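Q&A log
Question type: sequence-to-structure
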Amino acid sequence: MKLEPRPLYAIGTVARLTGLKPDTLRVWERRYGLGASHRSRTGRRQYTQADLEHMQLVATLVNSGVRIGEISACSGKTLEIMVRGPGDTKGEVQERKPRVLVIGPTMCRWLDEHQGCLTHVTANLARVSLAEARDALAGADAPDLLVIGCERLGMAQVRQVEELAAALHAGRTLVAYTSSTQRSLAALARADTGTTAFPPDSGFLAFELARLAAELASRRGSTHLGELVNGRPRQLSSAELAAASAVVPGSDVIDPARLAALVNGLAGLEEDIAAGAVGDWSDAAVQACAYAYAGQARWLMERALQIVMRPE
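Response status: OK
Response body:
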């Protein structure tokens, strides 16, 4: 069966997240085949997470002076190496995003309204019932996390969950149920299968996905939040910030030194949040949000400083 990729982004959202104009994205798609790999039923462009990350790399290189025609046919791994620079040996190959497979019409409909939970993972939706899933998904890639929506969770469904997880070689399994028995919940707990009532708490699901990313990152040697959560890249070097800090205030309303101080302060806040410890999933969700917002604020202040220092 055909799986539905998630999350999906409209062209306006991709334009905002890449700093590119929607017209530029349309032209690049028409001329170079870059852009959205998905279309809605009405024909609207829809960018997958992989599409967005690819366009962010392209935008970074174009903003640094590289011509779009020189990189339009490059793979994501090649673009990642070009962005990092030849002297940076850390993570030269773009790290794989966690793969999540979601099964069940009700669970898929819920995620259609809560796509934010799926940020920074490669997710696919399968709108089939648990009973039909094993045959329908034969040959599918092994997911790091299998999320199953199940209205009634009894012992028959427990066996189906276990058989499906084994057939798909799932790393971990999470079952969202509408009704259940204590016996079935105990059986899944013994099999180390996670369970939650439907509809799931969005914070809980976000934590489960963050934990999944942490498990994958830990095998690559990552140790703190800053390495587990995708943050905004730095746009200004230390030398550029030092130069802005040294500008003597004049008659201009906007003082570059104040903007540079804001950038440095927000960058320090990002580092502090990333290095902090958390006690439970609720704390982890709050900390991840704070890290993301601090990074967004620092990125915006850097853009403002760039405009002030290079108004042309």
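Response note: The CA atoms of residues 263 and 298 lie 5 Å apart.
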